[in-house]
Amino acid sequence: xxxxxxxxxxxxxxxxxxxxxxxxxxxxxxSTLDLRVFGYxxxxxxxxxxxxxxxxxxxxxxxxxxxxxxxxxxxxYSSQTRIGRIPALSRYVRQLTLASLQHLGYQVLDAxxxxxxxxxxxRFLQYLQxxxxxxxAADGPGGPVFRAKPGAAYVAKKTGVALVPVGAAMRDAIAxxxxxRFEIPRAFTAAALxxxxxxxxxEDADEATLAALSQQLEVSLNDxxxxxxxxxxxxxxxxxxSEVA
Length: 245
Description:
Blueprint: H1 2-32, E1 34-38, H2 40-49, E2 53-57, H3 63-68, E3 74-78, H4 87-103, E4 107-110, H5 117-129, E5 133-137, H6 151-159, E6 162-170, E7 173-175, E8 183-185, E9 190-195, H7 207-234, H8 241-244
Parallel strand pairs: 1-9, 2-5, 2-6, 3-4, 3-5
Antiparallel strand pairs: 6-9, 7-8
Helix pairs in contact: 1-4, 6-7
């Protein structure tokens, strides 16, 4: 029993330290990116109004927005995702991701720390109702990729937050072998963020309306992502030394 406790503590400590190192590396890479941002005025207007915002991204393209929005006080809710082919590895990767978000200054609500998923969702809603902003992946926690689920629209209905979709793209990125093809930018690459107009959800919206809004959000995210790809690939960055040699 005690050996299990000690082992778990050691693993947690190792994950925390590894996350700290990973964030340091990602920050270094982030500082080299040739990043262009479009539509920031949409997000800025909501923040200036004092209204809470819920940033909506695609799961596999969330790294760039997360780094860009570090200065905004946001809560990230992490649902219980499906376990991959190697359960232990999937758990450690999830722990590493959440620890990295904390190192970046985000408050993380981990569904696994609650007695049920619904309790975690309730806590997330409470944070938003108190005026805190949040981040949600429209196709999380387990896909299908680029297919918006009703979660974002439901949260907006319950809390009154403004949904702000954000598309992201990188000209040169590493795509992980995961359901969402999670993208990590290579150093010195061109990248683009395109922030869309806020989407409002009325508190009286019925299921049909929520479904229609989710479809609208899906179309918007895909359009924003497509525009980000055009901007990232059209913008030339200096060649690498290997390309010059």
